[in-house]
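Bench log, entry 3. Co-assembly request; chain sequences pasted below exactly as received.
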Amino acid sequence: MRVAVAGAMGRMGTVACEALRSANEYCCGLARAADPDREIVASLEEVLARKPDVLLDLTTQPASYEISLEAVSRGLCTVVGSSGWSAEQRAALAETAERRGVGALLVPNFSVGAMLMMRFAEAAARFFPDAEIVEMHDAKKKDKPSGTARETASRIEALTGRTTAVHSVRLPGLVAHQEIVFGGFGELLTIRHDSLTRESFVPGMLAAVHAVVSRRGLSIGLDSILQSAP
Amino acid sequence: MRVAVAGAMGRMGTVACEALRSANEYCCGLARAADPDREIVASLEEVLARKPDVLLDLTTQPASYEISLEAVSRGLCTVVGSSGWSAEQRAALAETAERRGVGALLVPNFSVGAMLMMRFAEAAARFFPDAEIVEMHDAKKKDKPSGTARETASRIEALTGRTTAVHSVRLPGLVAHQEIVFGGFGELLTIRHDSLTRESFVPGMLAAVHAVVSRRGLSIGLDSILQSAP
Amino acid sequence: MRVAVAGAMGRMGTVACEALRSANEYCCGLARAADPDREIVASLEEVLARKPDVLLDLTTQPASYEISLEAVSRGLCTVVGSSGWSAEQRAALAETAERRGVGALLVPNFSVGAMLMMRFAEAAARFFPDAEIVEMHDAKKKDKPSGTARETASRIEALTGRTTAVHSVRLPGLVAHQEIVFGGFGELLTIRHDSLTRESFVPGMLAAVHAVVSRRGLSIGLDSILQSAP
Amino acid sequence: MRVAVAGAMGRMGTVACEALRSANEYCCGLARAADPDREIVASLEEVLARKPDVLLDLTTQPASYEISLEAVSRGLCTVVGSSGWSAEQRAALAETAERRGVGALLVPNFSVGAMLMMRFAEAAARFFPDAEIVEMHDAKKKDKPSGTARETASRIEALTGRTTAVHSVRLPGLVAHQEIVFGGFGELLTIRHDSLTRESFVPGMLAAVHAVVSRRGLSIGLDSILQSAP
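Structure output for the full assembly:
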């Protein structure tokens, strides 16, 4: 498996390249400025010339849409690590991937732990309809509730029809934490996720890259590839 | 739905009868001494005469085996809330239930929260093979680790081949708590169950009683009936 | 030490009498209806005739004020377990206790754990001015935030001038829990109190009863007697 | 206030120099190789020539003993951030600091949160003699229990005569966490410290540097300077 990384010089890209090198799966990087020492090139043409198995697109919008659509239309399996795609953009990517017979995977959140937390929350909500969410983040995070908390609450609501209170704690020293407490008859069930370093996205990213090569068309979310895990 | 309760005067039986009365699903009780005021009779014959839909057997071994085997052989769907059944006893109950075409359900632990905790632990272990268990119980509980902790660890081992360390905390003031911490790459996923009152077994018991009437043969564990929940 | 209990038939009184009997420190009870079997009498005169060392007044307002003022004016050391005393009532009790040279102790909350939590919160706030409180109670508790959370926040504000956010979680299955998270530079300090049964007030009550006999005048709060603990 | 940092190129030293520069309290660094760009010199003579108010010694043993003893004997107030000092070495430093009339402060752990956790644990142990410690660290930490857990347990034992069980959890993804659970009568009191980044030692280090200039002789531990905090 040889992986090319678009956005190789960014915050996530740097960590991804390092992880792929450790796994002996690094093909090359794509960035605005080429850097031969780190096998970083400046155009998709040069990436294609190196014949990677997968493109991992870690750029942000609007670059993300252009790069990944072009890669898929050239027949390259692509994992896109960006959020903020419109329905129209998703449809265009899906259509192109179908037509070319290659896999495309759009993953807003690579954290395996966050994905499992949400999956467990949905399973628990079938039995314990009463829940509240406490999400805790560094004081610098100004928006509240967090995206993950909103998605968790909306998944629970979709299943049970009930709204779930979300409490947002903002303190210096916190990183990124979420706890969902389900209250039942004389018992509590709590699911908690702590994301303590930015490297936490690496295992999900590697799983996505390995999964996309056997897919056709567009899949969305880590959930779609880890559904049928052993 | 009309439910008869064997062991109606015991600790769990008392709570069960009360819960069934609240749900308007109480048929009668079975105990050593009859008590007409509470519709408690002293023989299985009298129970059968009242034509319950289900027998909920909350006696302990060895009474449990005799009562539930006899009930099933008389064609009565039965939920057994006891552990300590030998393989031979299980086989006998299974064979009788098959032959009579009625459902029998053997449930060592009625807590829905504990069942979900173990199910989630198995799911998480596929992605995070490193885990440790901290179980915390009242200082009066002398055995350690707890049965639930041992079962959790053995299920994780069956899936991953890895042993899971279990830490047993015993303090006054604790009731019954268990936490499984999964460690990944820069992230943690924690599943915690707190059982704070003895009433916590009621929802699982009601679910079992409702499920058994549409079963044939022997099923084991709450998991078997809640698997395909909506 | 021989203790008389006013409000002996109430919820707290029943637990208190039992605890005092176990400690071999029960003198008698005071309730509306006498009960010779349990050494419960119906008037303060009869209580005084039995010469207790301390009166533990567990009645509620307005009875509480009358009973304890009368007891103190008769020279009996008194511990009052009630809230809702006006400034005027406190002043009258203080004046009477001073004049008679006996101890009176007004304790709104007997929980030693809650007292330590608040004391630690004040100490931590000197070093970590950023804190948030998460208090969690059974869904039946309609008022929010809880009294303890409000008192904790107001003590922190008195010290630091900062307001502390309070998050109130209400779920079935919860009992009474509070967590104060202090956020610092790359670190967190958390103080948590779980009150799981109503018996949790007993140790603080016994400490109050033992302390009041060596006091003169009015003291308020468990903090006042446990300040200089060994 | 102008602070010189010995061990300026080390892991802690780098963070300390940065924090002091931000606080406008950086005088110079001391390291094996001088680096004029960062005002790092290679000898104590050059440090003294720049007339700092305090030396912060972040070297490790055996360098730590030599550097700080020499600094104190030359009349420079010194904060030493190292453990592993023998009783003889401590005595020599104390004697020299007394003789020269300057302050010396030996601080094995600069974390304010860890210090408060231990102080609270001692206070809680007076009321709740039953406690257990759960310390959780990254799987790379091979020694167990951690130094902080051992110190916490030994302080509780010194007060109560009871040994405190310590549970050591080692998992990838963990950083450095400790929880002390005190069990009482129907209640629990939990004190938890999470150290999530290496910067967490900075506030305690700054407090130590500010405190040492008004001391005479040797003081040990952050506790000694934060005792009488406002």
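Chain B is about 40% helix and 25% strand. Chain B has two domains: 3-110+200-226, 112-196.
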